[in-house]
Design a protein that fits this description.
2 copies of one chain form a homodimer. Chain A has 11 helices and 13 strands. The first copy, chain A, is an alpha/beta fold.
Chain lengths: 299, 299
């Protein structure tokens, strides 16, 4: 079953302790799409400038990804410039040029409106609400956000949360939103705001999943090679929602498996800059690492 | 099968965001003993001053703990004063009064010398070596250390590591010893120094276990109540080695189970100040939380 994703598409400048790249393909919708396409067809809604290299769309189009919802607008493509220290959990934004993304007003092609699996990537929660107004009756809405919206658009974010089934957040975002250090307390508060499932991503420390009555602790994968954490969260979301759309099984135990597939995709994403690793990943590698996750957690 | 532990016994002053206590029973040998005694008999070697309240020894003696190896020396008992911020992973030492612990020279009672399971708690690695010179042919030697010895007694520490089967370290200590951010790289380096198993404790993020050919990621337990992390590492060691001594099974899969029992004991330890929670813990609670660990990790 196909997935609709609405999010950013950009050209990133990234510096980590392991290297530096300029104008590399990036954006939440990109990392999500490359990741989710291993599991399910993906339809993308986003915007790029007329400077955006055509080859990027051509390459993405060769995957399981429908690009009809990508608007090409006169102007420059969204650009993010950021760096990471050795503590790769924390991105430092050096510059953000919204460019054509500034006036982004997501319009869903009519054939996207009956999408059953929706991913609202991190963006202005008002835009996330506009997307939800255009879809008919989705089976599952998964959302992401960031500290900027918690600090600057909290009311809109709370409205979005009411309409989201599963919310993905970083640990620091969950703590900030709920003003508590305890992730358990934070998750319990967020569950009261609307979502039936909260997934807290802890970077190299894995992820936690909470529902009203259960919780699940997904391990970190101890990586030999980490080069660039950019897009790890969106790759996580792609593996997570991709697996759910593929299996069409929203039971708690299957959502746990989806968290592990999300972790698998994120663990590959960080091995190279931008989406390079996912562009060159084989499906057999996805299965292989999933089995490794099984192996490292059994006791 | 009984365990020999050699380590500190002290009176701590502790301040955390959740409260403040003075002259509370503490020290690595104390937290370890309370924890391990749920699984196996424990023999303690340590030193206290003649100011040390007798009730502490009386209470400990009611557990499965032999105190013959505790020397009472003229002078004041070891005292640690420390505090924690909301990031409870990081202790801030405000003051250390070694007192009678300064000249501690561990002497094993003759009936301790044939001990099969040894825990060398965090202390000067030269003292750890002195302990090993006095034991006959132990089945298993588990060691702990800290950044102070890495920085100030590295040669002695490397000698100790050669004689230790399983080394326990915090993530920051492993990174410091091996001068790498990657815990996987750090573990691989430490395995070359002697131990056949390396366990890296990550506080609220769980623990990782590495051998030459396998690794295991133990989850964190999402605690509702955290009051004082002091002694969490030693409680972990107590549950870990206690379970191994009880089962006498040093297979890789059983060492994984031991890591989880260590995590169980650490998760209880932090619920109250000093060793209070372990002093009032029921064996049934240990089993209950172990089952919860099983539940939160299955997928």
């Amino acid at each position: 079953m196909s997935i609709l994703v609405v999010g950013s598409i950009g050209l990133d400048n990234i510096e980590t302790p392991f290297g530096k790249v300029e104008n590399i393909l990036g954006g939440s919708a990109i990392h999500f799409s490359y990741s989710a396409s291993f599991f399910s067809p993906v339809k993308v809604v986003g915007v790029v400038g007329n400077d955006f290299p055509k080859k990027h769309l051509e390459e993405l189009g060769k995957k399981n990804v429908d690009l009809k919802g990508i608007e090409i607008k006169k102007g420059k493509t969204f650009q993010w410039t950021g760096s990471y220290d050795y503590d790769l959990n924390q991105a430092h934004t050096l510059d953000t040029q919204l460019n054509v993304f500034e006036d982004f007003n997501p319009k869903l092609p009519s054939e996207y409106r009956n999408s059953n699996f929706i991913f609202l990537a991190n963006m202005d929660p008002e835009l996330q609400l506009k997307v939800l107004e255009q879809v008919e009756s989705p089976n599952l809405v998964v959302g992401d956000t960031m500290n900027f919206w918690i600090e600057n658009k909290k009311d809109a974010l709370l409205k979005t949360l009411k309409k989201v089934d599963i919310i993905l957040m970083n640990d620091s975002e969950a703590r900030e939103l709920c003003k508590t250090y305890s992730l358990l307390e934070a998750a319990q508060s967020i569950l009261k705001l609307g979502p039936s499932t909260v997934i807290i991503k802890k970077g190299e420390h894995g992820a936690l999943m909470f529902t009203d009555s259960t919780h699940f602790a997904a391990p970190a994968y101890p990586l030999e090679e980490v080069n660039d954490p950019t897009g790890a969260g969106d790759s996580f979301a792609g593996g997570f929602l991709g697996y759910l759309a593929q299996t069409k099984d929203l039971s708690e135990i299957n959502i746990r498996k989806a968290v592990v597939f999300g972790s698998v995709m994120a663990s590959y994403n960080v091995e190279n800059f931008g989406p390079r690793r996912l562009q060159n990943l084989a499906l057999s590698e996805v299965d292989k690492r999933y089995k490794e996750f099984v192996g490292i957690t059994r006791f």
